[in-house]
Amino acid sequence: MAEPFLGETRCFSFAFAPRGWALCNGQLLPINQNQALFSLLGTTFGGDGRVNFALPNLQGRVPIHMGQGFTLGQSGGAQAHTLTASELAPHTHLLRVAEGAARVAAPTNATLAAAPFNAYSGPGVSSAERLAPMHPATLATAGGAQAHTNMQPFLTLSICIALQGIFPSPN
């Protein structure tokens, strides 16, 4: 395996960091023992910049390239998300029944239509009667306001950063 660049990240299929590497788990490293790596990373991923600096934290995250409005070290997104009403497309939920069949404010013990009435067909039922809207109070809010998983399919690997290696030059 070729010698890595200092600060290079790689994926490994085992659960530990090899010699000369560290897991990208956001840990703090002392600047006085890692001056070359600090000169590359600075406090981009955290730390106080006097005594310590942080490695990138890729636990439960997907790396993306900087640019297009994203800056180096920026994190975002969420593993779970609860939708709000403002995030839903405008829409209605209508249930249509025969005129007078369910136009009550409190529908307790009420029925959509008395048997053997069929609100959708039958002799003497006009199309206007078939399309009469129910009283608005009969349709209630649904949902439990619980977060849903918001993650793409994934495969868990160890992502490590090189603590030793060739100092990269810009050109």
UniProtKB/TrEMBL annotation:
Q: Which InterPro entries match?
A: Phage_tail_collar_dom, Phage_tail_collar_dom_sf
Q: What would be one Pfam family of this protein?
A: Collar
All copies of domain Phage tail collar, residue ranges: 7-63
The alphabetized UniProt keywords are: Plasmid
Q: Does the record's keyword annotation contain Cytoplasm?
A: no
Q: What is this protein called?
A: Phage tail protein
